[in-house]
User: What shape does this take?
Amino acid sequence: MVTRELDGDAASRRAEKAATFRALHTGRGFVLPNAWDAGSARILEQVGFPAVATTSAGIAWSRGVPDGGTLDRDTMLEAVGHIASAVDVPVTADLEAGYGDTAEEVGRTVALAVELGAVGGNLEDARPGGLYGIDEAVDRVAAARAAAPSGAFVLNARTDTYFGGATGDPFDETVERATRYVEAGADCIFVPGVVDQDTIRRLAAAIPAPLNVVAGLASTIDAPTLFSLGVRRVSLGGSLARAAFGLLERAGRELLDAGTLGFLDGAIGYADLQRRFGA
Assistant: This one.
């Protein structure tokens, strides 16, 4: 993995991207799509999204391995760097649990992501076997914050309390962890796995930072409804990658079983893709 020094113009552009991305969290709400490679990121940018996220799941699948920490830090960050270099919109990185056993290693991961062009990142509080203890999780968030100043990097602290990690009442534990993470420097709180609308509304009201939830995984609530509940950031996780791989599988089955080419209906033309990726 190669990082790069920034000249004055590049540093200024990065600061502008960070400010743009941060401002998105202050509006009524925005959808943040997740790319798994440079090509998917460019398509999403061309569609008109104001920012793009990476997906650790999609990046892992694109390399033929399962999600969940299978890829090492350098491999994951290499993909993040390719995506950040391919688009002009802000990019926020899925950094899983920080790729390190210690808070210092988490800080190093965030610093590397910043060097590669990311202006935001997710940090999970789960590891194999369950959640980190709250004090240790807070230390990891604080180390991430210390590695990337608040104005230059949007730190999205994820808690997996609704993915079965809570030891008590998931709502109370989520709010407690979220509050501690914000105090440690998190700009946004990500709560995947919550699907009940009333619970989402209560979380948005109780958490002292913008709330991020994921659509298309456990929840099929649409973005306008989520915004009406107080959610400020709706991400897709690996859902777009799953849709793309699903289309590939259906196309392969049609070609193998019938030899027909119906799967090409709606496909982007060769010349069009050449034009889109040529700029």
